[in-house]
Specification:
By secondary structure, the chain is of the alpha+beta class. It has eight helices and six strands; from the N terminus they run H-H-E-H-H-H-E-E-E-H-E-H-E-H.
């Protein structure tokens, strides 16, 4: 019988008013998070980016396969290449690939095919999902890959916000150019392109509203 390797679980626990206060304060903090399409070129230390990414990599994953790679790009040359390729795809999208209803839904965000933030932001984090691993010449599948990487991406955004930085989940579709520009292996597919940096002075965001509790929660109680 195979021996199981377990270690004690440790976590600080809270009850009553302290529990509610922590849950409420975290929601209040996260509710201030916004996606930004404008960035300062103010540098962000590499050590900060590394800790943000490592926080994201604590996400749960299918069979603990951790099927993700985070490519952190600060090279001006590579950022320029990524912007050029992204804008080429976005020009096609805005020029006819997107439906009229999709374009209409984007109007409040004042966005188009021009993506200067891809060069201005000090860092681009490109999240790749790994569908399988190569081990001793054989393919070994990963499990629940999109779900696992989606969880990690969400935790990445929370870590960025916690650090006092801003981000945008940019998804130029298709995104295969990212694998080519960054010379990634065949088992990796681009999942998200996330510019990261400081908000510039005078930054503005669309005046949008998030759904309230009644719209997003369905309770089943006795």
């Amino acid at each position: 019988m195979e021996e199981k390797n377990f270690i004690p679980f440790e976590q600080e626990q809270f009850e009553g008013e302290a529990l509610l206060q922590r849950a409420t304060s975290f929601y209040t903090f996260m509710n201030k998070r916004r996606s930004l399409r404008m960035f300062s070129d103010k540098p962000v230390p590499k050590a900060v980016i590394e800790n943000i990414i490592m926080a994201a990599s604590t996400a749960p994953s299918g069979a603990n396969k951790q099927p993700w790679t985070f490519c952190a790009v600060s090279s001006p040359t590579i950022k320029k290449q990524i912007r050029a390729a992204a804008e080429e795809e976005e020009k096609i999208n805005y020029g006819g690939r997107m439906s009229d209803s999709w374009l209409n839904d984007l109007k409040p965000f004042d966005t188009d095919e021009h993506k200067p933030f891809l060069e201005i932001a000090p860092w681009l984090i490109v999240v790749f999902k790994r569908s399988y691993e190569e081990e001793e010449g054989a393919k070994k599948n990963n499990y629940y890959v999109s779900e696992s990487v989606g969880l990690a991406a969400g935790m990445l955004l929370a870590a960025i916000h916690h650090a006092g930085l801003v981000a945008l989940t940019h998804t130029p579709s298709p995104m295969n150019f990212l694998a080519k520009v960054l010379n990634r292996p065949k088992n990796e597919k681009p999942f998200l392109l996330i510019p990261v940096g400081y908000a510039p002075e005078g930054a503005e965001v669309p005046d949008i509203k998030r759904k309230n509790a009644e719209e997003v929660i369905v309770y089943y109680e006795e």
